[in-house]
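INFO batch 0412 | record 1 of 1 | parsing
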Amino acid sequence: MAGCSWDRLIDEWSRSAQALADVLGEPVRVASVPGGAFSRRVAAAAAAAGLAALFTSEPTMRCRVVDGCLVVGRYVLRRGAPATLAAALASGARAVRLRQLWLWNLKKLAKAVGGDLYPALSRLVHERAARP
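INFO prediction complete | emitting C-alpha cells
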C-alpha cells in the first residue's frame, strides 16, 4: 500500500471498511495494513477514511498516533511456535524482540530487491521450513 497514490489509499481504506461494515452490520474502525507495506501516508489515509486504529506488521512495542489514528505494531507467532517464544515476547525479552525486528528488516529488503518474485520465493521458503 505504501506505493499507492493518496487518492488510491483513501479509496482502498474507504471501500474496504464499507464492504466489511456491510457484512458485519457495524462500522469498521480498526484495520490491518495488508502485506506489511506501511508508511506514515498509509496511516494518514486510514485516519482520513475514518479508521481509529491500524495494525502494522512492524515488530515494535511502541504505539503512535498519526492524524488521530492509533498505529500499533505486532510480533509474529507462527503455527507450531513453542510456548516459550510466546512467553518471551509477552514478557518483553529484548533478544527475542530484536531478532524479530532484524528478520522483519531483512524481509523488507528481500521484498524491495525481489519485487514481483518475492511472493513465490516466500512460499518456497515457508514450504521447505514446514517439511519434517
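INFO post-check: The chain has a mean pLDDT of 90.
INFO record closed
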